Amino acid sequence: MAGDGSSSPGTLGIMSNFVSAAELKDLLSSGSPVRVIDVRWSLDRPDGCGEYLSGHVPGAVFVPLHTELATHGEAADGRHPLPSTEELQNAARRWGVNHGDIVIAYDDSKGLGAARAWWLLRQAGVDVRVLDGGIRAWKAAGFEIATDDVVPVPGDAVLEEIGADAISIDEAAAFPESGILLDARAPERYRGETEPYDPAAGHIPGALNVPMAAYLDADGKILDTDTLQQTFAGVGVTPGIPVAAYCGSGVTAAHTALVADEVGIPLKVYPGSWSQWSNTPGRPVATGDQPG
């Protein structure tokens, strides 16, 4: 893991946002208060429950990202607006999360859904980590797979107010003037060569492109700390410089926040992202490989 903050069996260290499959196995065996959540999601299959039922970490509760880690609104709100704190708390209680529990999130898509859960729950005061490599790492380790639909006893978690780590569309527009705004989408979408989901192609003027893939190895696991720090430094992210990120709809940008936090970089997320920006009349659009 990037922070090299491995924890001993039955405990969970504070050095890393990530746990390995072996660490999660030990944690589950220790009797510690752990709630595992399965956040399988992608734009082309927003409901990953079928994949969850085909095989998941024993005891894991399925979390539908598009209904419990997001809410719904007008197109000008973006595809995945933030849920209210009350909505997130109700969801966490449905997952069986109690006060003092450790939440471990995972998915099967290089940490995207899990990162969205991490970003929201961390703001809410929950001790939350991400399974490095997701369900694929768990399977590769040869650990047991379950196929039941876990319905836990409702929990009693009380969440803190969320939203302080988010920025608005106006703040995103002004951000490059005083800091660095990162675009976490694929390079061809940043350049405006293609746009499969939104009404306009291109990027927010002043934004710099660092795709999510820059932080991961071939197995979808987080790269080492030195490599990550060099990647951020390569676009001018240095101590004291304000940093924010956006993507298509605020999910991949949460992964950027997760990785940045892993190496000690505080980073805000623009949750409306390109889906909100491109659906808002009058917002300028830049194209090409330069910030513009």
Automatic annotation (TrEMBL):
A GO molecular-function annotation: thiosulfate-cyanide sulfurtransferase activity
UniProt entry keywords in alphabetical sequence: Repeat, Transferase
Domain Rhodanese: residue ranges: 30-147, 175-286
Keyword Transferase carried by entry: yes
SUPFAM superfamilies found in the cross-reference section: Rhodanese/Cell cycle control phosphatase
Signal peptide: none
Matches recorded under PROSITE patterns: RHODANESE_1 (PS00380), RHODANESE_3 (PS50206)
UniProt EC number: 2.8.1.1, 2.8.1.2
Family matches, as PANTHER family: SULFURTRANSFERASE, THIOSULFATE SULFERTANSFERASE
Descriptive protein name: Thiosulfate/3-mercaptopyruvate sulfurtransferase
Species of the source: Microbacterium natoriense
